[in-house]
Amino acid sequence: MSLARTLLHAALDTRWSTSLDPLLRRAAVAATAARAKAMGSSARGASSRAALDALYARGPLLLGHRGAKARAPENTLGAFRAALDDGAHGVELDTTLSGDSVPIVLHDDTLDRTTNGRGKPTDHDADDLAALDAGSWFPGWGKEPVPRLDEMFRAMPDGAVVNVEIKGPSPAFVSLERRVVDVIRAHWPRVQVIVSSFHPAQLLEVRRLAPELPIGLLFADDALLPLRTAWTAPLLVPDALHPPASAVTPSLVHACRRAGIRLNVWAVRDEHEAARLLAFGVDGLIVDDVASCAPLFER
Asked: Which terminus has fewer CB within 10 Å in the chain: N or C?
């Protein structure tokens, strides 16, 4: 087997040398720092850096994962209000497009799991999606619409933080990134924003369209090799990395600190794991159960 084919097979095999993943992540962070230094101010715009620093002016961030996902129907206005009521500084959400190219808030590729609708969101226009019930499936909750991204921003109080995860990848002609940036710009900086994605091409497009907005590269333990080890970070020079809690080690936190990269952690199971991660020195937590973690952030 040729070297090229060997490397391709390795990249496509999520089981390959997972014990090396922490080393590869730290190497990616170091390479990112080196490239940022070589590029100087062009690597990250001054306005992006200022916006990033403003996010953490109060200290580590507590964001509700899809709202207060532990006690409310995810990615609904009700869930976002619940997260803020429970003590979150803001929320994390997922956005994609409706059939009439309106950015909406939805995690899955289909409507089946979290609404009474069926099929892909692109099979329905935004008004039809708003008429669906995205809340009654969750115990104790009544009807909640599938919200537009703009509607969500309008509901956020001044100074709230929103982590907008762009779902993808999406073809360039769909213009998901441009439409999402247009919505964000209508509300930023009244609402503070960081844009995240698992897909480097989407983040590159966001940086091209809006260099003033901070971007965060997501990765997961069960993804393909390049997407679970942050290999693309040196290309992107992201403002933040967004790893799952299971991938965070003190050495990764230290490497990010030295590189000037913020670390926002998702898939945080409970307040005990949250306390451990805060002790490591991470910059933000994205949690399902906001109420149980909020006391850790009281100052």
From this structure: C
